[in-house]
């Protein structure tokens, strides 16, 4: 049997870094997906064709954990492809992990729940990166827009439609595990200051959840601006990201912030449809690249290939 599995990337709306320490966050799945094709073979050999070099280790670890747990011995041919560059910080590692695990689940007719797939995916991520909360794994698994607490303690789908977001790429690829580790080291010296920031970010997430459900975009934009200000104080933003966010707000966005670990990658701006084009042009003037993706996308799914 041969199947194709598709898992989405993600954008963090609110709650970066604080989520690693047990505070809530809000994350949304994006329309750009990772595709993983899996096929049984007659040999016992496992072949992986993953042009995205970054993804290979996550595919290998997913197979190793799955094999260890479910004791399968069949050979496999696995091919990956992506609708987005791993440079963008959309969570390609998490998406390829979930796509691989979900595909193995379907290939061997195990009927695992999505929560069981999430738990395996989180284990893969922690084995490789040693740090992480699992919000990107949750987005790839469940899709839509989620209110999430570390480790899957809470995974709540928010009943909303697609958000009017503009996504800008700063042109710099950042390493999420490296930045998370830097914050962890700083906590030894600045514990009180950093946890005060996390307390404030946690409150923003709670208010943001309410604003999202009420479609109060003006309030949500203000909360995004405040979240970005706190992330600047935390030291994870960059001059380029700050310029892109300021340009978006000056052009009429409700609010703007970095999205993800910081140090580069992407920013997001919440806009009215009438201001969208103006905001996009303003971001491009700073040297940012507009990424055409929609949000609130579906989670992992598959199709059989005859």
Q: What features would you describe in this structure?
A:
Strand 3, helix 1 and strand 4 (75-82) form a beta-alpha-beta unit. It is globular and about 60 Å long. The longest helix is centred in the middle third of the chain and has 39 residues, at 176-214. Helix 5 (176-214) runs antiparallel to helix 6. The N and C termini lie close together (8 Å). The protein has 2 domains: 2-161 and 296-305, Ribosomal Protein S5, domain 2; 165-291, Alpha-Beta Plaits. The mean pLDDT is 94. The protein has 8 helices and 11 strands. It has helices spanning 56-70, 92-107, 114-129, 135-142, 176-214, 217-234, 239-250, 276-285; strands at residues 2-14, 25-41, 46-49, 75-82, 145-149, 154-157, 165-169, 255-259, 266-270, 289-291, 301-305. Helices cover 44% and strands 24% of the residues. With 306 residues, the protein is of the alpha+beta class. Strands 1, 2, 3, 4, 5, 6 and 11 form a 7-stranded mixed beta sheet that branches.
Helix content: 40-55%
CATH hierarchy class name of the largest domain:
Alpha Beta
Mean pLDDT: 94
Overall shape: globular
Oligomer: single chain
Tell me the structural class: alpha+beta
Kindly provide the radius of gyration, computed on alpha-carbon positions and rounded to a whole number of angstroms. Answer: 19 Å
Number of strands: 11
User: What's the CATH topology name of the largest domain?
Assistant: Ribosomal Protein S5, domain 2
Distance between the termini: 8 Å
Tally of individual helices? 8
Instruction: Report the major sheet.
Output: 7 strands, mixed
Low-confidence stretches: none
């Amino acid at each position: 049997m041969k199947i194709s599995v598709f898992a989405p990337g993600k954008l963090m709306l609110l709650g970066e870094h604080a989520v690693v320490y047990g505070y809530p966050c809000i994350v949304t799945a994006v329309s750009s997906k990772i595709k993983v094709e899996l096929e049984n073979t007659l040999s016992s050999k496992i072949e992986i064709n993953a042009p995205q070099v970054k993804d290979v280790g996550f595919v290998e670890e997913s197979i190793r954990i799955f094999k260890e747990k479910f004791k399968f011995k069949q050979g496999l041919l696995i091919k990956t492809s992506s609708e987005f560059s791993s440079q963008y910080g959309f969570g390609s590692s998490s998406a390829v992990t979930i796509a691989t695990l979900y595909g193995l689940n379907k290939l061997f007719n195990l009927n695992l729940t999505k929560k069981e797939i999430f738990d395996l995916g989180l284990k893969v991520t922690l084995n490789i990166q040693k740090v992480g909360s699992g919000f990107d794994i949750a987005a790839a698994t469940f899709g839509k827009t989620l209110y999430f607490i570390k480790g899957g303690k809470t995974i709540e789908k928010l009943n909303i439609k697609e958000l009017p977001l503009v996504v800008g790429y700063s042109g710099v690829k950042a390493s999420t595990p490296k930045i998370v580790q830097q914050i962890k080291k700083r906590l030894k010296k600045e514990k009180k200051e950093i946890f005060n920031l996390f307390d404030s970010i946690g409150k923003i997430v709670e208010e943001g959840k309410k604003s999202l459900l009420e479609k109060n975009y003006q309030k949500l934009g203000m909360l995004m601006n405040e979240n970005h200000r706190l992330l600047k104080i935390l030291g994870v933003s960059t001059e380029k990201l700050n310029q892109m966010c300021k340009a978006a707000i000056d052009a009429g966005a409700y609010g703007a912030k970095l999205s993800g670990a910081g140090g580069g990658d992407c920013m997001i701006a919440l806009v009215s449809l009438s201001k969208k084009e103006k905001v996009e042009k303003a971001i491009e003037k700073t040297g940012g690249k507009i990424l055409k993706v929609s949000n609130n996308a579906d989670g992992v799914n598959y199709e059989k290939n005859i």
